[in-house]
Design a protein that fits this description.
Oligomer: single chain
Strand order of the largest sheet: 1-2-5-4-3
Number of strands: 5
Strand content: 5-15%
Radius of gyration: 20 Å
Structural class: mainly alpha
Number of domains: 3
Distance between the termini: 34 Å
Length: 336
């Protein structure tokens, strides 16, 4: 579909400076469709950056340019607020002798050409197991309502931003000894990869997290053989081949992990375009979010079941572990 291809071409321009195809042209209605895709994918800030970099010969409706400018201003203000709060939280935890690590969010935004144009969400902070009880007490002592998730993480809201303090760094069901040390370049890449996988097995994932992955590969000084070793040890090698294929085919960057690999990115592309940001592009997901916790959990189960062919093909081990966690009662509590 032309608008989907145009959307990815504009992402490649904003993220990596790849020129749009010769003769790039969209009608006003097609530009509206591209913006709608970006909204579903939480990529409006990146789109606004791409439009600002287009050659003047490419016609863009003036009203659309104005809309993008206004939206980009709001994204920048939110990003600054999230970054300031994350720095404040880290400083508070470090003042107590703890060793917090910011996951995703502000830490990956730093990899972007314009960090403030990455749409900011929650703040995820990891604490080593021995330090987690004190961090939890600090959260409870903040005077704000605190909620404990099924995986043990602690959730609370501060200044309108959700804070998620994690006792687990990876969304993987493996022995700790096969995982890379935190922090390290390999740890960050495996964490981002496993986070994307987790949501592919459940409600879905959008392009924002795939952009994070692409830019992290470009920015981090990882060791290729060491990283491939971790993929093998965690049984996620095939999944990461698919992920690398998406980065190569859709975002125009190749991590170089799998030279001459012929795996096609289509299975992941379908999930990204169908589900949008954490599955919220789907009308059933939006309705479930409005209906409450139980409806959202049921929707997650149904999506998990529909995704069985994909899961068994690319991550059978994680599929069965995830199925076990659902069967074990995770759905009776709030999801992580």
């Amino acid at each position: 579909m032309k608008t989907q291809e145009a959307f990815f071409a504009l992402l490649r321009l904003a993220l990596f400076g790849h020129p749009v195809p010769e003769g790039f042209s969209l009608s006003d209605s097609q530009w509206d469709e591209v913006v709608a895709i970006a909204q579903k994918q939480q990529a409006v800030g990146i789109l606004s950056q791409a439009v600002s970099q287009l050659d003047p010969s490419v016609a863009v409706p003036e009203a659309l340019v104005f809309r993008l400018m206004v939206a980009a201003d709001g994204i920048r203000r939110r990003s600054r607020k999230v970054l300031a709060l994350s720095r404040s939280l880290v400083a508070e935890l470090e003042a107590e002798g703890l060793h917090p690590v910011v996951m995703k969010g502000p830490s990956v935004a730093a990899f972007y050409p314009e960090p403030e144009l990455r749409t900011a969400g929650d703040i995820d902070i990891f604490l080593p197991e021995a330090e987690f009880p004190l961090a939890t007490e600090m959260a409870r002592g903040s005077g704000l309502p605190v909620e404990v998730s099924p995986d043990g993480s602690v959730l609370y809201t501060r200044d309108g931003i959700v804070i998620d303090q994690h006792c687990r760094y990876y969304d993987l069901h493996v022995r700790p000894e096969v995982l890379p040390p935190v922090p390290s370049a390999e740890a960050t890449l495996l964490m981002l990869s496993s986070h994307i996988l987790k949501h592919c097995l459940g409600p879905g994932i959008g392009v924002r997290q795939l952009c994070d992955m692409a830019l992290a590969y470009r920015a981090l000084p990882y060791d290729r053989e060491r990283l491939l070793g971790y993929f093998r040890a965690t049984k996620t090698l095939r999944w990461n081949r698919l992920l690398a294929a998406f980065l190569r085919d859709e975002l125009g960057t190749d991590p170089g992990l799998f030279p001459d690999d012929r795996m096609r990115s289509r299975p992941l592309r379908r999930i990204v375009l169908r589900s949008g940001d954490f599955g919220r592009a789907s009308s059933s997901r939006r309705q479930a979010e409005k209906a409450g916790t139980r409806a959202r959990k049921l929707d997650t189960v149904l999506r998990f079941l529909r995704g069985i062919p994909f899961s068994l093909r690319f991550a059978p081990r994680e599929f069965f572990r995830y199925a076990g966690s659902l069967a074990g009662g995770n759905l009776r509590r709030n999801p992580s």
